[in-house]
Structure formats: C-alpha cells, structure tokens
Structure to design on (311 residues):
C-alpha cells in the first residue's frame, strides 16, 4: 500500500456475498478497515454501518449483504473503528475517543466518495451518527439508531464497563460461547447454542492458536473513569440535528442502555420516528430475522425516495 494514498486496492472477501475489504487512511495515517458490499454506480444509494464500542463489521454480516443484494441493489459499507476488527490498533489508547473516531468516519466517507447515506449506528456507532449530524448534516439521509439514544442509562454503562477488556481467555470457541451465555443470558434468554457460538466467533479471533478479543483491550481505559450511578451528559442537541431526516429506532426489549422513557421522549421530539422493539433481547439486539431485515430495508428505501425527491 502507498502510504500517501487515502485508500488501498480492494481485496475480495467472499464472492458469495459480494463483499470486499478496503483500507482507508485516517487523518493521522492509521489504517482503517472497511467492508464493502454491492456496486457503485450512478444514483447508487449507500447504507453506512457503524458498530458499537468493542464490536466489528461482523455484526452486519447478515443485514449488509441482505440490503446490498436486495431490490433495489444498493451500496453498503461497514467500518471497523480504530482498534477494532481489522483496523490498525492505535499506539495511544487515548485516541479511542469520539472526536478522533468522528474524524476517521469523515475520512472514510470522503475517500469512498459516499454522498448522503443512511447510517445504521449500533450503540457507540449511533452516537457517532448523531455527532455527524451536527458536524456534517448534509451527509445523512436517514438514521437507524440501534439500541442507542440521547440518554444512556448508568446501569447499562456500568455493565459494559464490568466486562470490556476483563473477560478471561477462553480455550475454545465453545468455552467462549458458554462464557458469553453466563454474562449476557439475562438480556438474551432465548438465544440458541448456535447463536451463542456465532456471537463468540464475532467476539474472539485466532491469533497463532490463541483466542484473543477482536478489539484492543486497552479500550477499557477509555471508560475506567466512569462513576457508577452517574448519568452521562444527554445528547438531545445531537439527536435534534437529525430532525430533518427519517429515523428508525431499534430497541431490545431487555435493554439496560436505552429506557422506554427515552424512546418516548425521542418520539415526542421526532413524531415521525419509526420504532421497532425486539422481544427477548437486550443491548444490542441481533440484526437478523426476515421481519426485522424487511423493516430495515423498507426504511432505507423510504430514505432513498425522500432523498431523490429533494434532489
């Protein structure tokens, strides 16, 4: 790769789902991994998927190809934030913050020439979506907020703090799956053994025969100062920056990060907000299942129609 280039050549990932891996340079030169689906052509409307704090593009392995290969076909990209997935780890963990990650996102959108798009933001990815609405409002044609809102419940944040970078090293994926079940079964009581195993495969990777997290464990240092029981500053100003575009809110019925009261307040400020509550799941609900995928696809299509009219 030419270090003076903002983007490297694409590398096929899977012909079956028409996915490609691309690497984009962040403003400070760090390499960011982007997973691309679908084609790029005149009028192609994009969906940009942003994962949560310790999550990766693997969270979108079902929804991304479903939307890219649907009717109409569309362009879908998913970003590994710095220190996650296949993106380069930062030598300074203090750079794992929303300001730096917002600049990274802007660099990716510019390098890949993505115009107004729908953003599917899971947890922290949804916070980045709201921040982008303030910084670059024209970049957003619609927003899917995946179990995230302007108010983050202290209980949920404390739970996240309790396990980020702290889970023991599993000897196998089966052991990893059992570990995840013990930690998260209260929020996800109906997941099957195969779903827990799939979750483990997203959370750990093989590194020379050893299973390690798919994120830089130093991410834990960015939330270590969180005081249990203290509310974080609300993001209503950032949420209100999305007032001009359609919003779809997806909440797990068992979520401890977004409350029903917050969703009610969101709907009062944005009366046209679409809402999906996923039963028997918590933070964050799985992006799978025919009904949920159809609802997301219909929402993205609506955003595309609105954008076409505005043009």
């Amino acid at each position: 790769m030419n270090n003076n280039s903002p983007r490297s050549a694409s590398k096929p990932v899977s012909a079956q789902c028409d996915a490609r891996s691309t690497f984009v340079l962040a403003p400070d030169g760090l390499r960011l991994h982007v997973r691309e689906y679908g084609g790029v052509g005149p009028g192609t409307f994009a969906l940009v998927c942003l994962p949560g704090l310790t999550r990766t593009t693997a969270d979108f392995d079902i929804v991304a190809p479903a939307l890219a290969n649907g009717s109409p076909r569309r362009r879908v990209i998913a970003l590994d934030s710095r220190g996650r997935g296949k993106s380069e780890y930062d030598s300074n963990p203090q750079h794992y913050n929303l300001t730096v990650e917002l600049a990274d996102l802007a660099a990716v959108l510019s390098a890949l020439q993505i115009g107004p798009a729908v953003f599917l933001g899971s947890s922290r990815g949804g916070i980045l979506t709201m921040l982008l609405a303030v910084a670059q409002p024209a970049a957003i044609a619609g927003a899917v907020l995946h179990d995230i809102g302007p108010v983050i419940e202290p209980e949920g944040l404390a739970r996240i703090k309790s396990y980020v970078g702290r889970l023991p090293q599993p000897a196998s994926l089966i052991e990893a799956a059992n570990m995840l079940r013990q930690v998260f079964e209260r929020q996800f009581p109906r997941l099957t053994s195969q779903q827990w195993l799939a979750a483990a495969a997203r959370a750990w990777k093989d590194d020379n025969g050893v299973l390690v997290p798919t994120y830089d464990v130093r991410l834990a240092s960015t939330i270590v100062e969180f005081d249990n029981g203290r509310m974080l500053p609300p993001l209503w100003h950032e949420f209100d920056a999305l007032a001009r575009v359609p919003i779809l809110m997806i909440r797990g019925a068992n979520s401890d990060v977004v409350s029903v009261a917050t969703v009610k307040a969101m709907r009062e400020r944005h009366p046209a907000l679409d809402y999906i509550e996923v039963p028997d799941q918590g933070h964050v609900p799985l992006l799978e299942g025919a009904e949920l995928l159809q609802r997301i696809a219909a929402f993205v299509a609506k955003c595309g129609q609105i954008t076409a009219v505005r043009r």
About this structure: Residues 97 and 202 are 22 Å apart (CA to CA). Residues 290-310 form the longest helix (21 residues).
